[in-house]
Amino acid sequence: MGQAELQRAGPRPDLSSIYHDEVAYVWDFLRYLGIPARDIEDVVHDTFLTVHRRLDTYDPSRPLRPWITGIAYRVASDYRRRARHRHEVMTDHAAASANSDPEQATRRRRARDVLLRVLEEMSPERRAVFFLHEMEERSVVEIAEMLDVPINTLYSRLRRARQQFERAVDRHRRSGKGGAR
Question: Least enclosed by CB within 10 Å: which of 56, 76, 102, 110?
Fold first, then answer.
């Protein structure tokens, strides 16, 4: 992209505003990718360090969140390759306690716990495409651009992730751990 096109696209956002607008999203995305709670802050930090280093490569004519999602995905992949971590089940007690209806909060917490356990059973690659497509409602074409993965590979991962998700949810329901039926 030439200088004229960059000027028409608008100014690049500064790191402070990017962080303010996107940190909660990045945090949640990395949690759904299976980054353990004890390491999430460091991985979020590494993600924004990478955003800072690569900010001059960002094309302001394109949406920012997919660009950041791709960076977060690669940082999480690097973390998993070098990490020496143990299995952890992630929960969000703060969200449950913020709810005024204790029964509803308990149902939501149980459903979230089942979702997180099911996602933990998936490979990181399947988990990423499943999360972005099913929960973020991104198209496979968008995901391919974010993650720099061929479209056919993503369709295959998504199909397998959906099958794995359905089997795991059925298994959790049959075992009585699935909350409301």
Answer: 56
pLDDT at 58 over 70: yes
Task: Please give the mean pLDDT across all residues of the chain.
Answer: 82
Question: Check: CATH 3.40.50.620 for 1-86?
Answer: no
* CA pair distance 114, 168, nearest whole angstrom: 9
Collapsing DSSP to helix, strand or coil, 52 comes out as helix
Please name the residue that has the structure tokens 């993965």. Answer: 149
Q: Is the pLDDT of residue 153 over 80?
A: yes
CA angle 29/76/106 to nearest 5° reads: 35
CB 131 within 8 A of CB 29: yes
Q: Sketch the domain layout of the chain as residue ranges.
A: 1-86, 101-181
**Token pair listed for 142:** 């968008």
pLDDT beyond 90 at 25? yes
Q: What is the pLDDT of residue 101?
A: 79
Rounded to whole angstroms, how far apart are CA atoms 156 and 143?
A: 13
Contacts of 26 (CB under 8 A, 6+ apart): 44, 47, 48, 68, 72
Which CATH class for the 101-181 domain? mainly alpha
